[in-house]
Amino acid sequence: MYCLLKITKSENKMHYFSKLTEYAIRALIVMAGEKYWRMQVKTICEIDPLPLHFTRKAMQILAQNKILKAYKGPTGGYKLNKKPEEIKLFDVIQIFEPSQTSNSCVIGEYHCAPKRPCSLRGLIEVTEKDFIRKLKNISIADLTYKTF
What ranges do the domains of the chain cover? Predict the structure, then answer.
């Protein structure tokens, strides 16, 4: 199990994913919502204002992991390798987010030992399991049509 939730003391915010993960998901949503056969990164970044450099990097990683198919050359670009309904949010996140051990403390004070976990460990584990289950059921197509 890995922690998808991190509480940052200085900002008092919960961070779920890295910016690169966010850019990858947003780019996939653009691609799923557009009817183009293949899209260039520049076009994606014009539709949804994403940073070109990092979006390009995210797209390369998605292609390496068979979520996208890459086309080279001046008319190249990317296309979805599967239907948007078949691309699950969890699978995309798993590509970009390194797994963390379950003994890292969510409140950042110490490492939770199995015999002496922090006071939030049990609640966080239940919440994470539910969150992961939901992510496995949400497709990129769902994100183009719904808000959660």
Answer: 6-145
Segment 5-27, tens digit of pLDDT? 444 445 555 557 899 999 999 99
- Predicted TM-score (pTM) of the model is 0.78
- The fold for domain 6-145 equals Arc Repressor Mutant, subunit A (1.10.10)
Nearest CA-CA partner of 106 in 115, 97, 118, 94: 118
Within a 10 A sphere around the Cβ of 20, how many other Cβ atoms? Answer: 16
